[in-house]
Amino acid sequence: MTQPDYQLLCAQVRSFAEEDPHWLPLLSNVSALIMDTLADLNWAGFYLRDARTDEQTLLLGPFQGKVACVHIAFDKGVCGTAAAADQPQLVPNVHEFPGHIACDSASNSEVVIPLHASGQVIGVLDIDSPLFNRFTAEDSEGLKAVARTLDEVTDFSGLPLTK
Questions:
Q1: Which parts of the chain register pLDDT below 50?
Q2: Which structural domain, as residue segments, surrounds residue 39?
Q3: 3-class state of residue 146 by DSSP
């Protein structure tokens, strides 16, 4: 499998943001770009903080793939763990991850990277594959670069961090 050019991916994210940095079109296009660029994926998208509740909850955001879970509590599943710990999660076999949430039973590996705004976790970039061990440390590092680029260029101002 050919390794994606993550520097090019970051440049494309910046280019999309130059047209419009608003989180909705930007994250929509980035999820499509990731789905098109990385091989062997069945889901690529975002979960964003849901400020309508007093609890720390992630709400389904723009994505490419099958129907997905709508709400994920911080510290639940791979996405919630990444958000609560503010740490990327590289999971070779999701079935061995304690508390894994099976939104799509076809997913077997996953990588999740936190996103930030105003110094706080605003959400996560979530990518799933039907292959076991699909994601490498290089993928995780490359996707962290994509997430940091999103942190820098995305206008999250219409997405409140707190109730």
A1: none
A2: 6-153
A3: helix
Of 38, 37, 34, give the one whose Cα is nearest residue 147: 34
Give the pLDDT of residue 1.
Answer: 67
**Cβ atoms within 10 Å of 88's Cβ, excluding its own:** 17
8, burial (CB in 10 Å: exposed 0-12, middle 13-18, buried 19+)? exposed
Length of the chain: 163
**Contact present, 78 and 97 (Cβ < 8 Å):** yes
Output the domain CATH number for residue 107.
3.30.450.40
And the tokens for 16?
A: 């999309």
| Side chain identity, residue 48 | L
Give which of 119, 116, 134, 148 is closest to 13, Cα–Cα.
Answer: 148
Residue 143 lies in a domain: yes
3-state secondary structure of 154: coil
User: Would residue 158 count as lying in a domain?
Assistant: no
